[in-house]
Amino acid sequence: EGILHADVVGFHAFDHARHFLNASKRILGLTYESLMGGLIGVRFHGKKVLVTMSNVSIETDMLDVAMALPEVQAGAKALKEKHGRAIIAGIDVAQGLSGIQLKLLAFERLLMDYPNWRNDVVMVQKCLVPNTRLADEADTLRDIRASVHRIQEKFGIEVMDYEEIQGSSSLPMVKRLVIWMAANVLLHTPIREGLNLLPLEYVS
């Protein structure tokens, strides 16, 4: 009911809006209707609450300009030359639901099952530590560090380029673009998350 006191309720995806509409109908017995302009109106206490869906995107023009910067071009070239292997990249927050641990287990399985890749691939993983969920971050980092250590012990230090970045939940755009331009694959494996624009940056 608190949400329905607003004039407009916005969601990133239709699925989220659909769940909200179903909850309004089943829990509160409210009706809704389609309106002009692709909006949906929910009748609540004599007024229409507009429900909208709006997909957030990225500024591709800005990314194109940034990718042409000399420091981005040079950084991507240096990262490729540093490893001389196919690069699987990831930038994730060090929290349990980010799925970094599952990603590392999958990478370890790849190296176990396909030994021909051991000298031809590297995982470049940036692990962001915002220091906002201290217990979760500490547990997650402990597991991640153990996995990185185990993978490097089994297959060599060259297969993992792992870095923790303290006090931040995002990497500056220039640093992200260096990684995206050098990477052959972006591996993004969250268990559950909200909106994340990094995959859109990578494919642009």
From TrEMBL:
Q: Which InterPro entries match?
A: Glyco_trans_20
Ranges in coiled-coil conformation:
none
GO MF terms on file?
trehalose-phosphatase activity
> Residues of the signal sequence?
none
Which biological processes are named by the entry's GO terms?
Answer: trehalose biosynthetic process
Gene Ontology terms, cellular component aspect?
Answer: cytosol
User: What's the name of the protein?
Assistant: Trehalose-6-phosphate synthase
Q: Which lineage? A: Eukaryota, Sar, Stramenopiles, Ochrophyta, Bacillariophyta
